[in-house]
């Protein structure tokens, strides 16, 4: 099948699923009420899907590896730690827990601040091995995990219910205003990735080749890492931890399209991500009647997919 | 010289062990123990002596597991916590808890052990087929693999509303060790002895597949034995104590920095320093907010994380 036919089908499926999600059961009497709930939700899904898939794709290019996702840098663990600390210090009735916007600002600021500090110290030393940076991020992540574990032990079950809500990504209680505001930085980052697509195409050839073709690989890596960090931090603070989602969409996109151009792959993987998330959310709401959250499904499906990739040895 | 070294080592251990025995919320002394005070006797026999034994067994078992793992994976940064063994063991724990609610402890252990062996073998086989050029990539993918497995664990825990319970088990803490519930840890003793027995074969395997075959070694069998030994230590520690991060990673690395790579020679020292590290971290955890306790996993992950980052950065500087 030609690529453009596949893209057309993907686009069509994407719009159908969104239209179905929004339009289901609407009539002249109730549309105002339903739309105020559904539009922010769909917008949040679309934004999160685009941010996660585009950043995972670029991250794989930077690391020249097909099974990594930026979440291993410890964003999820840090996000959880921030949530737990807020509950432990301020109690569960605090503004930071109940109001979405202060919580969002604080979590995003902490995540971006942490990563930028890490990058700053790392790149200042002039090292170019990105894997060492990742490993340091992972170690910090596991440190955050044990802190979270310790604090979780201290809180009482009522407070833990509040924390558990943050532990799993969910689109069910999205704050509309928050979605509109976070759209601006996400779209800017997305556009920046899109405009750097050609350089990324060259970087995908490997670091040595890219350098000999005139790309300043270290500078590009640094810039891209910062953009990715901002995107992942916002997406995580918006919907919660979604560890494997980027991995699934990028791998599936690469299976579907045997292309290497980033401008093409960024768009198609975003489309695929939107399709998967919207239909996943529909599945959670209608078939499973909210018995579980979407992130549990993502982790289960994504995790099994990852294991399958390992067993099939098709990575690399 | 060697004898002097051993005397210093032994006295360090006995000092720490004595501190560990004397430290605690209950005010009891050795004098009370020997003069027949029943309360003191109970405190020592039921709580403090088992705790000390558990620390020794867990420290030695996990460090040796790390050493064996590094040999069979041919990677300095491999260890039960960076190859998914611990996460698979936790998955086994949850599965055991859900499926066999009133079963005996040994059946639990068997389930945890089975998951740990299977999960580790899966990862080892995967690595054998793909030779990574970058040393740091192996732990990175191993940790990712561990994350996948723990996502499955969380899925099960969420379904049965066990998320909070699970996170409090996985925090390693020796405070809950009491007479009668820690004896499974003694499995570390045969595991360590077997590791010593097979030490030279692990060393041969660490040089590579073809070399091992050339000198007449059944490579796959040695790897399998290694994985089983690792899984025994890891499974028993995870079941009784919880997850002690980085221990199997930093102790063998630091020991081999100072003592070289002769496995037969460094194996006892790896066990020794593992014990010392766990013992001193445990004492520290008991002192910081006395009379309460910080779980050892927190202290060791701060300390171990720093040492690990140092090792990684240093390794790159050499290369």
- Biggest sheet descriptor of chain A: none
> pLDDT under 50 segments of chain A (min length 5)?
none
Mean pLDDT of chain B: 84
Q: Please tally the β strands of chain B and state the result.
A: 0
Summarize the helix and strand pattern of chain B as letters: HHHHHHHHHHHHHH
First-to-last CA distance of chain A = 25 Å
What's the overall geometry of chain B?
globular
Radius of gyration of chain A: 20 Å
Radius of gyration of chain B, whole Å: 20 Å
For this structure, what is the CATH homologous superfamily of chain B?
Answer: ABC transporter involved in vitamin B12 uptake, BtuC
Structure description:
The complex is a heterodimer of chains A (316) and B (319). Chain A is an all-alpha fold and 316 residues long. Chain A contains 14 helices and no strands. Chain A has a domain at 1-39 and 244-316. In chain A, 78% of the residues lie in helices and 0% in strands. Chain B is mainly α. Chain B has one domain (2-18, 44-318): ABC transporter involved in vitamin B12 uptake, BtuC, CATH 1.10.3470.10. Chain B is built from 14 helices and no strands. Chain B has helices spanning 2-22, 30-34, 38-73, 85-99, 105-129, 137-159, 163-170, 188-197, 199-207, 209-214, 219-240, 247-259, 263-288, 296-318. Chain B is globular, with a radius of gyration of 20 Å. Chain B starts with a helix and ends with a helix. The A-B interface holds A 65, 67-68, 72, 127, 129, 131-132, 134-136, 138-140, 142-143, 146-150, 152-153, 157, 160, 164, 167-168, 243-244, 292-293, 296, 299-300, 302-304, 306-307, 310-311, 313, 315-316 and B 77, 81, 122-123, 126, 129-130, 134, 136-137, 139-141, 143-145, 147-149, 151-152, 154-155, 158-159, 163-164, 167-168, 170-171, 245, 294-295, 297-298, 301-302, 305, 308-309, 312-313, 316.
